[in-house]
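Minutes, project huddle
Topic: does the predicted pose make sense with flavin-adenine dinucleotide bound?
PN asked that the exact inputs be recorded in the minutes so nobody has to dig through chat later. Recorded below.
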Amino acid sequence: MFRPLPRNDHGCGWLTSLPTRQPRPPLQAEQKADLVIIGAGYTGLAAARHYAQLNPQAKVIILEAQLAAEGASARNSGYLVDSTLNDGHMSDTGLQQYRDKYALNKAGMDCVERLVKEHEIDCDWDACGKFHATAVPAHEAKLQRFSSLLKELDLEHKMMAGADLKQRLGTQYYCSALWTKGGVMLQPAKLGRAYIELLPENVSLFENSPVLKWETTGKQVRVVTAMGQVTAQNVLLAVNGFMAAGKIKRDRAFPLTLTASMTRPLTDEEYGAIGQPKAWGVLSAQAMGATVRLTEDRRIMVRNTVEVWPKLNMGGRHLLQRQGMHMRGLQRRFPQLNGNLFDSLWSGITCISGNNGQVFERVQPNVFVAGCYNGGGIGLATLFGEQMAHLASGQMTDTIAQIEARPKPTRLPPQPILGWGVRLRLLRDRLLARKEN
Ligand SMILES: Cc1cc2nc3c(=O)[nH]c(=O)nc-3n(C[C@H](O)[C@H](O)[C@H](O)COP(=O)(O)OP(=O)(O)OC[C@H]3O[C@@H](n4cnc5c(N)ncnc54)[C@H](O)[C@@H]3O)c2cc1C
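Predicted holo structure (tokens), as shared on screen:
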């Protein structure tokens, strides 16, 4: 049983810059399928495409509560990355775990890159690497430790500081940064749109069709929406941050609500005032610090809030209040830019576990679940979707073995203790990151 979901806000700058798309009709009456997929983000769309290709005679149905690829899969910051900073990785066991995690992220990146190249997807692909930057001298040691780790893994990177860094980013806010080659900046909503366009003919996508409940009846699964139902051999639950809303893995994965704003394109004068840097993406050296991007078309995106939000999607005055924080983040970095340049503001839901583990599981003989990418889901969601298609087709792959060898999400405390605990942890992280927002 799913609890009713709030609607997405309409402010996401990645989406508003795209042409409008005619939504596919909602599910009506009764349908039969070999595979029914709940949720049309990167995971569900990648799984549908791949399953339909592996089984050309099969019928696949995707049910999406709102519009396909307009949830987190359009609202994210567009960083497709291999290495991540915040890991306890310096012990020997930790190092091996980090290697394994890196290998999986890299497989996710490669999976997206293969699709982008093969289908000539226009998603503003920019293999410019990524920066992990800090404005706090005390945090520089973290970057040095990360540099040592990357050296051990033989991954190309460099430390930057002073005038070089200022010139590269167009801001003197950061005192130092570590640049890694393994990072692509892309337009997430364009990628999601392309995944819809790539769906083969044996896939039917129904939008505005929230699933109310699903149940297994012997060898079949019945999935019910307000106006119709699907009976299928197999079901894939690909709802990511909405798992708990559907009582799926709620003792392992929980949702967080993030908000971001993006400016209009800077004028020539404004762009000149920041030194005309090339596009870049900065991640903070501190958990909960801001993610900031300068895009190819000279927009600046700031994402610097992460919260436990009871309604999941955030709207109205709550969302507007968050823009005040985005504004402070922008002004700290670019005091030479005057006025409110933001022309878009949105929230999005991501899914986190207690130990960074992801969900990739056959929970019943004909029920599959994939999600919980802990903030790094562009590559992993695409990879997990494709690999779920293999698993649901009865095929084992080396990548499935690689995914299954990763630590599973640890058990979480029950609510309301979980909510309190996460809020406390976020509060602590927010305090530590107060100079990085
Ligand atoms: C603000 C933000 C920034 C992020 N930045 C990055 C980043 O830079 N790099 C990165 O790799 N990752 C990032 N992420 C994470 C990444 O976006 C996600 O991990 C990824 O999009 C997950 O894809 P998904 O298909 O599993 O889930 P989603 O895209 O969330 O799709 C799930 C779909 O299920 C649908 N659904 C839910 N319930 C039902 C129901 N009952 N019936 C039918 N449909 C239902 C939802 O409407 C939704 O469309 C970010 C996330 C957010 C929110």
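Observations noted during the meeting:
- The mean pLDDT is 94.
- The two ends are 38 Å apart (CA to CA).
No decisions taken; revisit at the next huddle.
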